Amino acid sequence: MIAYLNDSVVWWHWIIVGLILIITEMATGTFISLGLGVAAIIVGLIILLLPMGLVYQLLLWIILSVFLITALFKWFKAQPTVSDSGQSAYRFDTPGTVTQAIHPHQRGKVSFDTPVLGNTDWHATSEHELPEGSRIKIVEVNGQLIEVAPLKS
């Protein structure tokens, strides 16, 4: 059986199998079929230049497949979230200054040292009495209204 396959498996069989696996990858999106397909195409090109037996072809394909799949998973690994915008603790450490006095549970205005959700000036509320010029920090973001608290020095 192996002797028959040694004579009947030629380089273009590997290329065809590789292309089929790459097309399969388009439907699955797992990178496994892509690694197997690219490895098969490489094996096809290698045996075109350097003929070898089927056992060596399969061994080369397995080694290349493992290497390529591992490389693809490392290259395309899940990336951490770049922006924490909209997260529950978004910019709670951002300091700012009260620009219009805030009385408990009433609106005032604040200005932050760095933009918060794209803007430095915000309407804000607080549970504390905050005169103009007070240093503050974010406690909670509620849509277009920010709740602040005094910044402890």
Explain this structure.
By secondary structure, the chain is α+β, with helices and mostly antiparallel strands. The chain has two domains: 2-75, no CATH class; 95-150, OB fold (Dihydrolipoamide Acetyltransferase, E2P), CATH 2.40.50. Helix content is 42%, strand content 24%. It is built from four helices and five strands; from the N terminus they run H-H-H-H-E-E-E-E-E. Helix 2 packs antiparallel against helix 3 and helix 3 (32-49) packs across helix 4 (54-75). The longest helix is centred in the middle third of the chain and has 22 residues, at 54-75. The termini are far apart. The model has no long low-confidence stretch (mean pLDDT 87).
Describe the structure using short key phrases.
alpha+beta; 24% strand; five-stranded mixed beta barrel; 153 residues; OB fold (Dihydrolipoamide Acetyltransferase, E2P); single chain; rod-shaped
N to C succession of SSEs: HHHHEEEEE
* Mean of pLDDT: 87
Total number of β-strand segments?
5
Q: How many domain regions?
A: 2
Q: What low-confidence regions span 5 or more consecutive residues with pLDDT below 50?
A: none
Topology:
Layout: H1 2-8, H2 11-28, H3 32-49, H4 54-75, E1 95-100, E2 108-116, E3 119-125, E4 135-142, E5 145-150
Parallel strand pairs: 3-5
Antiparallel strand pairs: 1-2, 1-4, 2-3, 4-5
Helix pairs in contact: 2-3, 3-4
